[in-house]
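Hello again, I could really use a second opinion on something today. I owe you a coffee for this, so here goes:
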Amino acid sequence: MAQDFNRREAMAALLAGAAAPALAVAAAPDASSGPAPGRGPRDGSRWTSEFLPLDPVQRFRQAMRIQRSLRDQDDILHWYHFIMITVPLNATPKAVVRWEGIEFSRHQRISEDRYRMHGHNLSFPRDLQTGEFVDAVLNPVTGKRVDVPPMALISDPGIVRSPAGVITLDKASLAPRPDYKMLRREGRFVKVDAIRVPPETWPVTFLEMGFEAAPAELFDDPSQTWLPSEVSGAYVFPWPAWMGMGDAPGHMFAAWSGYKLRSVDELPEGFRRRAERDYPELLKVDRAIFDRPVPDLHPG
């Protein structure tokens, strides 16, 4: 099967599923020994859910295939929709605004199972009811209409990711932060659960966790270094400045869903046109940043 599995094929596989043969990674049972314990018949007649018995290195590598790729150098594009919700203290949470956006990043392998990564995010606000692009929304907590600017998050210092965890390059001497990942096989998909642990310098009220699912048939083929995936997740974070909340107690919650795409050519037309008009430089990854030397890293 070709490694450049296109988006149409990816969507078909993700929606329809695929047969799940024995797991073709080092920690899995030998395919010739029969069905893995607890998996049920090979024809997929019984739905199951089970964690994959992977050591830390294999867990890292298999998660990379789903979330990114195992190629030494690659650009990785995620596209998504997400909805922001207010969580004021002692009040009912309320939805505020929908967003459509991308996370676009690049990695380069710097040593065995160690990758340097840089990227950015770009999102445009959309009306909750109509889905149209907007530049202002009602703050349901204050009752005031507030301007909502696009989000262009470009101040990324970069990270180094390995089985030991994550090192942020502006604090390269610090020990790796834990990088929670758990892989599980559910029916005709293999999923990775992840928690993105922020640096200690970030706001206290911040946590992001996500889930990505790839067709098991492709996951079980070790020649597939890039896997199509459906993504979802959620995060909590402090009030954004545009909400005008001042010192009011509370925070925001957001939940997203989307896909890993092969290129900007696969982006929905409306989003792509808006990005080409307003932020064309963010429809590619800045490769020049990789010319900068990697700081001296913590040995972990």
